[in-house]
Design goal:
Oligomer: homotetramer
Number of helices of chain A: 14
CATH topology of the largest domain in chain A: Rossmann fold
Largest sheet of chain A: 6 strands, parallel
Number of domains of chain A: 2
Distance between the termini of chain A: 26 Å
Strand content of chain A: 15-25%
CATH architecture of the largest domain in chain A: 3-Layer(aba) Sandwich
Helix content of chain A: 25-40%
Shape of chain A: globular
């Protein structure tokens, strides 16, 4: 009984995910950073098998995860040799890396999009993939609105679609042709927040989690805001800077990708406080020597009782990729659980804890500690009333 | 329909409580810092009337709250003149201020303890007091264990009892003689954590909330620890310094009072994380110019997935007294609700959110965000299963 | 014996300068924030008289400094009524405020540039102005290179000149026509760093100090870098964010003005360390509720002995305008001293301490503590060898 | 031409000093953290030879520096094998480690103090020691006042003398018997601040530098205070906490050792600002997992121009021992230079930069950047007027 995973984007997150899992299986590390490590989930972390990876960086295509890991990781410990079994295959490009210094090519540069989709499906079938995880570099993407529009866009050559949308489409098709599967979208491209994707997944009996894995400063900010809200303090302003030196921060120096990110980060203020306190919350810059360990600085000012004004200052140095990798250890297991339960479309109680911008559309970001309670209740099979998270009752898009 | 309050210790907390309430009634400020301001509680903040105050500082006894406020507050705004109606009467001393620079005297310096208790009871009755709030300066106090021991200690002259215990005893007697009432213990002296107090309150049909109002750095630390626990991160160490310039910090420079405080602050680590991460969490010092706005510095180091090590640094400048005063606006209303409901003894779902060391004895400190959920469920009348907060089921000491 | 000052830009800096001086004269405040307050300078702070002010904001033109101060300042203290004597006259526009929300007009909108210059000169002469201080909003400006080019640009209508250049040209002309005077350039526009300005000032027997008053995070960063350099530590990287809510930060959200600022802030790294440690040092954003009290966050990582790696984190909340106003109290007095000494052109030992980008061109930024020593030696009349601050000996452009 | 060093206290500082020097000689690391690394000093770092070490920890005596280093260091790099040549011999005990968990013995436990002194002198002569460096654990010590009192105290059995005093006495005797040498006192015990030590060293033609190597938070605090002083800002208060996990912090949990340290740290406020701004500057605690990388938190509040109030917050993680080891690379070379120049007693221009409490007695602590200028001038042979650092002219205690 295993969870068979295909991973999209063989970068730092994928590498930490693969390496961390193997080290955990070998007993070298604990399951730190894996929220439901010891939980009642029917799958254990050691049940996860990464069976294939995809990338569009020409330097990675055709190699294996072990070779890539040796280039990317430098933590003074040995790379598990079992990673040699994970091939890095050519993925979908759609010019995702345009503007970054990487030389890239994709299946879609060699064939039309529908053929590319078929190629992916074949590869997934032969490897009996259960869950596809999307951790490609942040890219621009627009929601499609309906399943019909989504299908037509692919049939029409996919001109304005993001790579993530193509992958997500392939997963929906794969579910129809070969049995239900799940897609975990850990980047900002709106998938679980796209009614078109959700409708298609409902029709095709597939599961999607998303969008944008909740690591870094955002969950911490969310919980601090909840801390204020629970005491009815009036937040005067919030500033949150963050800077890093990995590929993702490099991509964010491109304005349109940054705008994508800012959206998911900034909505939490109004969602949690109930009013839009003045805020500056943005990925701020790129500085190479910071590497994957980003630097966050935060400042908050609030009104307490009897007109008293307090101040809060926070610094953090956070290893971005391992944090997300730890969440993925849960997400792929939860994804398979959702498939088994037959809960097609997306699952807000999962997204609310793990994602920066939890789908479906129209649902609020909530403090992560509140999301954690929701999650635990969903896992234990409780019926959860979601009305307080939205004006209209939550309707799961199910078959 | 009002909540009539007697306040013990006419210091900064009492003053902010009284001034803030009057400003709120006059529409000058919002109810910021009052967690349940807008809730479904049957009493509103404007229903609270402070009807009498007590102190042992010779400079305060015989004056009124308006005169004291003019000396203590300097926030550039006018002091509400309605505070002239609150007399500051002579309270219980028991040498509470020994070692501090204040000249003090109490009822117990002029008569024996039982007579002092009778005096208090008479004063409370004539003012129809519902709730007594304890915000005297931090003092040393030991739990008594049984109602019998408590009664004997008072009868024997109260030699080793703290002033808080005498006051709490008076409230229990007052409940028996004149009808049930409640005691809100916002300082560290163990009352809600003393089986002797709880037993007596059960017998006398009285309510006590405590111990030690959860303001300052502790609730923030608790929620940050919960943030780590929910992600299964392994905390390597925690350092938390804090320093202030008010009377309470001055008192904490006396070793035995400091020890009292350290206990309530430090237990949260093991309680929330489930293991005793190495920590240094102490009230650190006194520096006059900081005044009532304390300074907190915190540092935490933790292990994330795949062996990644992250760091977190927090600074805060927090107005101590207004924060506690804001909580009291809830606590006195909740106390009257508990009396009406007839839930004698103490109420863990209230204490867990509002107190640093929530009684009854044997119950865990929990993250404040978790406590907040408990509180909301208690307020809305839910039956709350408390077994997960303790090895044995919670038995309310009720009549 | 007084120092008669015309001030350009009746904003927050000018207001704090004027208000602070009057409060100091009235004995209400000490000379805190004035580096040479108690020094051997022949002029005391109380010798300074602001005799006229200029602005292009239509809401300010024609009013007096008292009226403007009442709108801008809100520190709970009274505005000195002596400020009613300072008229706010129409200044030079040159579209300085383009892109900001202010409605503006200038002399140059009503007449040609040479006539505008003559108007200024006449106004200055009638008020016997000794020193002109430039604190207009940050604007874009390019160096001119030669006195000839400068003269031709003005004669040709001043099309590409900044408002600061027009003002500086007027001061040079004023010096020739009515006797030597000085120009203090406290904003980033390159004047003391423009060989054209320096040549003209040398010819016309005038003094200029500049550029960009050293307040905020930059001097602190400079001294911290010097702290590292003096211990031969190898700085791995430096991040410095800053955000504010005053007009200057609003202007910096316009890319070309930001670029102007970044240049002066960022050169200090190489100048002080001797190597260009990777850095991100930028005015980062605008957030209105921060007002004039900006927020700075900094992070530095460095290598100590035997490969040890240390980290430094700094937060600051700094009142921007009063800090600069305090420096101006020195700069106008030093400017008059330089005029009396006949040291035409610019004075590096003054600029090195007070300016972010000390002129003349080709000279290094140095740590402020090193600049302080230079300054003290210049004030006391020492001959200062400046060769170590530049490859070629410093030649003052004197008559 | 070399500098031959005996090191007292084979702990982390000694180990980093020895290991760092060997790694530098081997070209593995740069001279980062060595202030005068590339200076005109006649000795280079590679000229330093550690020829013997001393300790009283039974686990170290009889071993060599290589063996000790393997136990103490864990930085993932190999220990240089050349350290096997440095024997760790039994040193002076005087109950220095009383109260700490180490089992200790010293020469003075096996013979009387004068014999112990003779033993040291013989060992130093046979190894042709030039400079003795004192880096034993912080201990209590009182100044002696006169050379006579010092001699008598040793002759009388040394009952109340610190181990440092015995070592310092041995160095003075060694200088008389076998030629001038120098003692670098990098711990708080007052030696360069003891007129008795200075008189003896003057008579015996020896050099002492001290006291308490300026690493950690103190130099940074000093430079930040100077930053305020140079701008005439009025500091409202300063808080500085620091906590670490090495032997030195463990020792500081003993009250009398802590008092020793607090004295040297706290005097800088008045010395640099010229007034005693309210401050809390103390070694605050011990927490094992912090190890040798201490944690510092600082907060400062100051008044700028026109009544504006600013705030500064600083966090640092500092590797304590390597920082001091880096300074020692200079100090032993400067010590030999002082011996060659024949400047007996102590040298304020050296101490002012490198020491927390620079001797001789009566001299002020100054900002380190000011001390750096003094140092450079002393190194280059300038005659330095020291009157501004003291009420009376500096008289070097020379033969």
């Amino acid at each position: 009984m295993s969870v068979r995973v295909a991973i999209l984007g063989q970068g730092l997150v994928a590498t930490h995910f693969e390496v961390g899992l193997e080290r955990f299986k070998a007993g070298e590390i604990g399951a730190h950073g894996v929220p439901l490590a010891d939980s009642i989930l029917p799958y254990k972390p050691e049940d996860i098998d990464v069976v294939v990876a995809y990338d569009v960086d020409e330097k990675k295509i055709g190699r294996n995860a072990y070779e890539v890991a040796r280039d990317l990781l430098d933590d003074g410990r040995e790379i598990p040799r079992t990673l040699k079994d994970i091939d890095v295959r050519m993925g979908i490009h759609m010019e995702t890396l345009k503007g970054t210094p990487f030389k890239a090519k994709g299946l879609d540069d060699e064939m039309n999009v529908e053929e590319a989709v078929d190629t992916l499906i074949d590869e997934w079938r032969s490897r009996r993939v259960d869950v596809v995880v999307n951790v490609i570099t942040t890219e621009h993407g627009e929601p499609l609105g309906t399943a019909e529009a989504f299908r037509e866009a692919v049939a029409g050559g996919g001109a304005n679609l993001s790579a993530s949308h193509i992958y997500a489409y392939a997963l929906a098709e794969y579910s129809t042709r070969h049995g239900s599967a799940a897609f975990v979208n850990a980047i900002p491209t709106p998938l679980a927040n796209d009614d078109g994707v959700l409708e298609l997944y409902g029709q095709n009996r597939a599961v999607v989690f998303g969008d944008d894995g909740a690591t870094g400063a955002t969950p911490l900010t969310a919980d601090l805001l909840e801390h204020m809200a629970e005491r009815n303090r009036k937040v005067g302003f919030i500033v949150q800077f963050n800077i890093g030196g990995n590929t993702d921060f490099l991509a964010l120096t491109l304005p349109e990708k940054n705008a994508m990110k800012e959206l998911t980060k900034s909505s939490i203020v109004d969602d949690i406080l109930g009013y839009d306190a003045p805020h500056y919350i943005k990925p701020t810059g790129y500085l190479k020597p910071l590497g994957d360990k980003k630097f966050v600085a935060m400042h908050m000012d609030y009104l307490s009782f009897n007109g008293a004004r307090d101040e809060l200052y926070v610094f953090a140095r956070i290893n971005d990729s391992p944090a997300l990798a730890g969440l993925l250890v849960d997400l792929v297991r939860l994804a398979k659980v959702a498939v088994i339960k037959g809960q097609w479309g997306t699952i807000y109680p999962v997204n609310a804890f793990y994602m920066k911008r939890p789908g479906p559309p129209g649902y609020r970001s909530i403090a992560k500690n509140v999301g954690y309670e929701l999650l635990k209740r969903w896992v234990s099979g409780d019926i959860v009333d979601l009305t307080e998270f939205h004006g209209t009752p939550f309707v799961e898009s199910s078959s």
